[in-house]
Amino acid sequence: GNSVTQMEGPVTLSEEAFLTINCTYTATGYPSLFWYVQYPGEGLQLLLKATKADDKGSNKGFEATYRKETTSFHLEKGSVQVSDSAVYFCALSGGGGSEKLVFGKGTKLTVNP
Amino acid sequence: GAGVSQTPSNKVTEKGKYVELRCDPISGHTALYWYRQSLGQGPEFLIYFQGTGAADDSGLPNDRFFAVRPEGSVSTLKIQRTERGDSAVYLCASSSQGGRGLAGGSLETQYFGPGTRLLVL
Known about the structure:
The structure holds two protein chains of two kinds. By secondary structure, chain A is mainly β. Chain A is 0% helix and 50% strand. In chain B, a hairpin with a 2-residue loop joins β5 (44-50) and β6 (53-56). The interface between A and B is medium-sized, with 30 and 30 residues.
């Protein structure tokens, strides 16, 4: 079945550091790929998405490119801020015709001033 | 506008009891999803409704779990004979339609509610 594997956390960075959170997937067909974020005390929010190969999703300085050849969707940000501290989830949907989201286990990011 | 709401926000019950969790989706959203998130894990799919019907219930763990959406709006997740292992955060999400892109990928964003934290003692 479909699955998502993302980098184990926790990740601790200093402000303005470069961030990469790795995500790879296994899916039937052509899924859509997502990054969701969960800030402390808040619900899951969509951060960015890409619906086909080579698409780049971007939002709030974060980027991720849908790489079909490596089945990856790595999240990057050039300069993190304290306010980026949260748990980040990589997810896919639609592979094989299913509407449900399949999530990775999440990566907790802490950014220190 | 109003987002997805879930009630109660917290529920404590005893092993063997019956519980109902409610989800109010965003107005006009035809697709509704239930997920369960255990501590330190990502959300896991339970069931997906398109309108009033369950289009995919493959994630329900066993027959103690049941969900309904009788009028195509509000949904209730029902858990019978609760067990300690049912303790988790139950998340509801809605989207404007369960559509698919040309290549089969889902196009519509799922918007999540704040969740109901269930604790079974």
